[in-house]
Amino acid sequence: MKFMVCSPSEAACSLSDEPVLRVLEAALNDCLAREWLA
User: Fold this and answer.
1) What's the whole-model pTM score?
2) DSSP code, position 18
3) Quick one: which of 10, 12, 28, 35 has the fewest CB in 10 Å?
4) What percent of the chain has pLDDT over 90?
């Protein structure tokens, strides 16, 4: 991703070309992946 998501509102404000839900889902998946790989 092009930016770090600190909160849903920040993610929404950072968007311009992707649906909010898709980005939030990607951020959540990335966070979960880091937890599993840690």
Assistant:
1) 0.41
2) S
3) 35
4) 0
- For 30, half-sphere exposure in the C-beta direction (CA atoms, 13 angstrom radius) is 12
Task: Say if CB 8 and CB 14 are below 8 A apart.
Answer: no
Question: Which of 11, 9, 32 has the alpha carbon at shortest distance from 1?
Answer: 11
Residue 14 and residue 3 in contact, taking contact as beta carbons nearer than 8 Å: yes
Asked whether the beta carbons of 26 and 3 are under 8 A apart, the reply is: no
Q: pLDDT tens digits for 21-38?
A: 787 788 888 877 887 776
Q: Which residue has the tokens 């939030």?
A: 24
- How far is the C-alpha of 19 from the C-alpha of 32, rounded, in Å? 20
